[in-house]
Specification:
Length: about 160
């Protein structure tokens, strides 16, 4: 199974926000820090906001922040929201299904069960699990340790 870049970037954005629970962070800052396209990340932020994972604030002091506690956001829920319309095989994806075996195929049931197991495992892991006590992650992002009061530069949220 291969997840899209969209899901990968969505998780990075959420992890970044979880590391800054007390403030808004800009999409531009996250994109620059994580080496992502700001335009692409802005579209992902819009999708995450529509799914209820983040809140966005426009304007000079705007940015994004988690809309829920990190403990309430599971990796499985995020990936389900980001991977809509992408099927493991043609018969699991959106129409049209041109497979001539589809009406009698039992492999489809196996794929459905495998996907359910995949997401069930990811539902066991929350955003908090990925970011709590993570000074190593904070260091990689240039954020300092959890106790530091590193100030971010705010720019207008696009």
């Amino acid at each position: 199974m291969h997840l899209t870049v969209r899901s990968d970037h969505a998780m990075r954005l959420l992890m970044f926000c979880a590391l800054h629970p007390e403030r808004l962070v800009t999409v531009a800052h996250i994109a620059e820090t994580c080496g992502m396209s700001e335009t692409h990340l802005a579209k992902i932020a819009h999708a995450l906001a529509a799914a209820g994972f983040i809140e966005t604030t426009r304007g000079r002091r705007g940015g994004v922040r988690l809309a829920q506690p990190p403990e309430a956001i599971t990796v499985g829920a995020v990936l389900r929201a980001m991977e809509t319309g992408v099927g493991l095989t043609e018969c699991l994806g959106p129409e049209p299904n041109t497979c001539v075996l589809a009406p009698a195929c039992r492999l489809r049931r196996a794929f459905v069960a495998a996907l359910e197991a995949f997401f069930a495992e990811l539902d066991r892991h929350s955003l908090a699990d990925l970011t709590t006590d993570s000074d190593d992650l904070r260091s990689l992002l240039g954020l300092g340790s959890q106790g530091d009061a590193t100030e971010l530069l705010y720019s207008e949220y696009q």
